[in-house]
Automatic annotation (TrEMBL):
Organism: Microbacterium oryzae
Taxonomic classification: Bacteria, Bacillati, Actinomycetota, Actinomycetes, Micrococcales
Protein name: Succinate dehydrogenase
Keyword vocabulary terms for this entry: Heme, Iron, Membrane, Metal-binding, Transmembrane, Transmembrane helix
Any one of the GO CC terms: membrane
SUPFAM superfamilies (alphabetical): Fumarate reductase respiratory complex transmembrane subunits
Length: 157
């Protein structure tokens, strides 16, 4: 087989840039993957294994208690950010590998980035603005709830 018979490989979509974004994306995937394994197994251990009663101890009060602690807020936000960026970067690589049309590929990469950014912003807002007493008072007030007394005492302060 001669060189003339071989098909030319696909040329890169754009010229190589200084800084090599693909290299940093590859490194990010490895580092974030290791960090995510630690964060997720720590999350599972603390939420499902260590509490007295195991998974049966997991209820709204347990989550509300964790969300009141800045350490667990930052743990969950770090896990959220790493997971969404890791997943979006993986989807970007898949789109770049399999989508042939330049315009479609560019559109899909933008959509992935916008959706990931939106979910990161919304998830971060939920973690840092979580208020367990938000639905306790008002039309759905339930005086029999264990949370009702705690929220009533907090509101009186």
């Amino acid at each position: 087989m001669t060189a003339a018979e071989l098909a030319a490989p696909r040329s890169p979509q754009r010229p190589a840039r200084r800084g090599n974004l693909e290299k940093w994306g590859w490194i990010y995937m490895r580092v974030s993957g290791v960090l995510l394994v630690v964060l997720i197994f720590g999350h599972l251990l603390v939420n499902l294994v260590l509490p007295e009663g195991g998974v049966h101890a997991l209820d709204f009060a347990f989550v509300a208690g964790k969300m009141a602690d800045p350490f667990w807020q930052w743990w969950d936000v770090l896990m959220l950010w790493l997971a969404f960026i890791h997943g979006a970067n993986g989807m970007r690589v898949i789109v770049n590998d399999y989508v042939q049309g330049r315009a479609v590929r560019k559109t899909l990469v933008w959509v992935i980035g916008i959706v990931a950014a939106l979910m990161i912003v919304l998830g971060t807002l939920v973690v840092f603005t979580f208020d367990p007493c938000a639905g306790v008072f008002g039309p759905f007030e339930n005086p029999d709830s264990a949370l009702f007394e705690v929220c009533q005492a907090a509101a009186a302060k």
